Each structure stands twice: as C-alpha cells, then as structure tokens.
Structure of CDP-diacylglycerol--glycerol-3-phosphate 3-phosphatidyltransferase:
Amino acid sequence: MNPRHMSLHRLIPPQLTLPTLITLARFALVPLVVAAIARGAWGLAFAGFALAGLSDALDGWIARRFAMTSRLGALLDPLADKALVVAVVAALALEGTLPLWFAGLLALRDGLVLAVIALARARGRRLVVRPLAIGKVNTAAQIAFLAILLGARALGAGTGTFAALAAPALAGLAVASAALQAVRAAREPGAEAP
C-alpha cells in the first residue's frame, strides 16, 4: 500500500466512508432548504431538495458499487431522509402550503417509531433494522410529493388541489406503514424499522 494512502487511512475512521460523508452533507442541506422555504425562495428550496435527493442516490450507489457500506452509514442514511422530509413538511405547513394536521401526523408517526426504538434499546433489546417495502414506498412517495410541491412553487404554479388530494393518501400510507412495522416488530423480536 502507498505510504501516503496509509497515513490518510489512519486519519479517517473506517465508519466515515465517502457515502457516509455525503449523507452528512445531506443533513447540512436540511436547514438550508427550510430557510429557503421560510424566505419564499422556492427555486433555491427546490434546488436544495433536489440536490439532497441526488446525494441520497449517489451515496447508496457508491456504497454498493465500491463496497463502502458501514454501520454508521446504514444508520444515518434513513435518518437523513426523515430529517429532510419532516423538516420540509413542517416548513411547508407553517408557510401554509400543507395542512398542519398532515405535518403533525407525520411528525407523530416518526416520533413514535423513534420512541419505540429508544425504549427497546434502553431495555437492552438488540435491534435489527430491516425496513419493510411499504416503508420504502412511503418514504419515496413523501419525497416525490414534496419535490412536486417545491417544483410547482418554484414555477409559480398553484399547489392547493394537488396538496389537498395527495396529503390524505400519503397520511394513510404513513399510518399503514407504521401499523405494519408495529405488527412485524411484535412478531419478530429485534425487527423494528424506522
């Protein structure tokens, strides 16, 4: 091994892979997107949200393609997605684009899942995170919904009808996802999923 690479390798902990660093950068985008929404800078908000989405695809591809997966990355990646979704939904609800009940429901659902995980860990229960397909569909649908809303606002288009129709469907999907995850957790010890 090249001595230059060896010294660099010693400086960077093995958990801080390139995909994990990209995920950490996605966390940094969250307050920027929220601030853009608060200022009504819809083009900037959409660009930041789109960049976060691209970084999510990129970090996953790099991790799989170059065998750079890590436990830290596997933990942080879905948390970065949730942080982005919850923060943008809250900002859009406070701004008036989304109904407050929708933001409250998503925050409550994710808060309850995190509370269950924290409680299980406090009781010494080993958790194996294996997301269900419906949870992945739920997250993808929420991200697509938010991208459409932000893109429409950036273009100056109205979003009222779309939001009014899509929010209840997404709320139902979020509740169904949480319910199925709870059933799975009850049946399979150590199978909680965020």
